[in-house]
Amino acid sequence: MNKKLKCILLIDDNPHDNFFHERAIKAYDETEIVVTKDSGAEALEYLKAKTGPHSDLIFLDINMPAMNGWEFLQQYSQLDKTVREQTIIIMLTTSANPSDIEKGQKNAFVSDYITKPLTKEKMQLIADKYFGE
Amino acid sequence: MDKKKSDELLIATRELAFQYEEKAKRAGELLIANEEFQKQGEALRKSHELFLTLFEYNHAGISVSRISDGVLLNVNDAFVRLFGFADKEDIVGRASRDVIQHLDVRQMERAFLDMKKNGPGKEFEMNVRTQGAELWVSISLMEVEIEDIPCCLSAFIDITRRKKVEDELKATNQKMLLQNEEKEKRTAERLIAIRELSFQNAEKEKRAEERIIARRELTFQNEEKEKRAAELVIANRELIFQNTEKEKRAAELIIANRELAFQNEEKEKRAAELIIANRELVFQSEEKGKRAAELIIANRELIFQNEEKEKRAAELTIANRELAFQNEDKEKRAAELIIANRELIFQNEEKEKRADELVIANRELAFQNEEKEKRAAELIIANRELAFQSEEKGKRAAELIIANRELAFQSEEKGKRANELIIANRELSYQNEEKEKRAHELIIANVELEQFAYVASHDLQEPLRTVSNYMKVFEEDYLNIFDDNARKYLKAVNESVERMSLLIKSLLDFSRLGSNKQVISVDCGHMVSNVIADLNKMIKTSGAVIEIGELPILNVYKTQIRQVFQNLITNAIKFQKEGVQPRIQILAEQADGAWKFSVSDNGIGISSDHFEKVFDIFQRLRTDRTYEGNGIGLANCKKIIQLHQGEIWIESVLGHGTTFYFTISNMTP
């Protein structure tokens, strides 16, 4: 039961990516619950409702229909402070576009920027960097 | 609003803090008083009633507990209320830790020890729970002995409200701090955006200025052309004026010619008259000659008559002599005869005089004739002269007419050319506008194309990644139940996916080749040495020998030119005959104001059919897997060399090595 992370929230419109990334997170086996939301709006609803456990880590895709990753972050900043506290946000995207990377670095809520796919090894690095002892 | 609230909260907090301090002081005073009482047992007893009153009616909760087991011996009403009980009896006799939930016994013990060491009066705070609610209390302790039992007198003051206010204040402060940070960040972002905008505006202004200058240039050229056209029009007018002048002069010449012709006619008439007069004179001369001849004949006649008369005179003399002898009458007659002779002599003299005068008159006439003939000759010469001059004038008039026609023709031509120039100017300005439009369209098209290539290759990557991911899932979950064939197929799919991914990545790189470039001075020799150092592993494995000639320092797009060298050297090593040590030579020479580089190898060579094809994107000549490559390296090289206004080409004999040549100009940094 004593795993490093209580809950990870995956936000991506691509169900295949969500499936694979969830697999990678489970393969690393240091997370109790993985919640996937396939749009920014759904993720915001979920966070507002506070029905689930607190999300220690959010993986956020950039290219999504209706509300993209950047727009999600704008809405996220309006959320209650208690929801945002103690949460790490990492952009997880296909885009290696330098302008997107720069945008990520400038955003106060974004801790890191990694390219898809998420693997067990990448999870290991993230956990060591942000959730080490 | 926040500020106001926080100010109000601050004031309220200070107020509360002050009240609690006051209360604590009073409680402390009470305890001190109590100690005083204990020291003076007698006095205590005397004041026992007062103590009880203070104990019972104090607004602070006070308890007396046994130190040995913490059992509460007594509490006041305030204590009962504070911890949510109904009656004293529910509490007395129970342990403190049972009555006060979450009571930190260890902290109490520490405080007790501290009190024993440093004396009473030091307060401490604790978070506890009553029957119903969470509670913050301020506690102060004192050791007392009641009926020889060591007891602890504890005073509890409720500070929950103060704590809450403090927490809220802290939270507000944190919120404000966070908001301030956000605002600063946004301000910084806005500043960057404003700088960006002002930079873009400056750029736009520069371009607008450039356009204005170009337009002025065009306007200036048009004005110049119009000026020239105007000058042409003036020159035409001048020509027309000159033509008119010439025509006038020609008309005058014609009149002058007519005048001359008239004068000539007059002269000819006079000459004709002169000829007639001459003829008259000649006739008169002839007449005079005739008369002179007649006079000469008459003279001869006279001379003959004189001789006859002398003969007769002689005969008379003889006769006289004969007659001398004869008569006086005869003498008279002789005298008369003498007189007659004298008369005759006089007449002869007169005749001779007249003959002389005639000779003189003849000479005069002959002189006059000569004069007249001279004048006639002169007139003839003058006439010829005039006729010649007339002819000359006629010729000149004809020439003038031709010249006039020529001029009129030239004027027309000039007019035509001026019109053509005006049309050509209009055409040019129209073409200039078209060119500007096309240049603008090209820029937009390029940006769109780059964007398209980027988006296309990005979107292609996405489904491919999904395939790759599911292949991994397959391998992880089912590899052990696959047979060898299935594993082989899986491997083939994986390799293809990997290759496709590499191709898309290359396409992405190719589409972004032009962006993010900067011209700087580069020592090519130094750069090639660095490339070789980077390829160290590959060079060692292949055992390649690389010779570098003297390379220049040039202004180029550094990253891009480095890629060219890296691609060509990698190719030279890669496309090698098996079992042959690769020998590579990199040289440069100056040619036609540019630099010509060459990278030669002793590898497998390329057929001349493929000299052009190798530079096409994704073009691989080798279908087998002996020579790995993604088919984009040389396409990149070509694009980069074109960026440097140069050319790239191949010389090769199949089986005998290849030389890649490329030219680059020194760019303006």
Write down the CATH topology of the domain at 2-158 in chain B: Beta-Lactamase
What proportion of the residues of chain B is helical, as a percent range? over 70%
Relative strand content of chain A: 15-25%
Oligomer: heterodimer
The helix tally of chain A amounts to 6
> In this structure, how is the largest beta sheet of chain A organized?
5 strands, parallel
Q: Could you spell the SSE succession of chain A in H and E letters? A: EHEHEHHEHEH
Q: Judging from the principal axes of the Cα atoms, what is the shape of chain B?
A: elongated
Strand order in the sheet with the most strands of chain B: 2-1-5-4-3
Please count the beta strands of chain A (DSSP E, at least 2 residues each).
Answer: 5
Give the topology, please.
The complex is a heterodimer of chains A (133) and B (669).
Chain A: E1 5-11, H1 15-28, E2 31-37, H2 40-49, E3 57-60, H3 69-76, H4 81-84, E4 88-93, H5 98-106, E5 110-115, H6 120-130
Parallel strand pairs in A: 1-2, 1-3, 3-4, 4-5
Chain B: H1 2-39, H2 41-57, E1 61-66, E2 72-75, H3 77-82, H4 96-99, H5 105-118, E3 124-129, E4 134-146, E5 149-158, H6 160-324, H7 328-478, H8 484-511, E6 519-523, H9 524-534, H10 536-542, E7 545-548, E8 553-557, H11 558-574, E9 583-591, E10 594-600, H12 633-643, E11 648-652, E12 658-664
Parallel strand pairs in B: 7-9
Antiparallel strand pairs in B: 1-2, 1-5, 3-4, 4-5, 6-8, 9-10, 10-12, 11-12
Helix pairs in contact in B: 1-2, 1-6, 6-7, 7-8, 9-11, 11-12
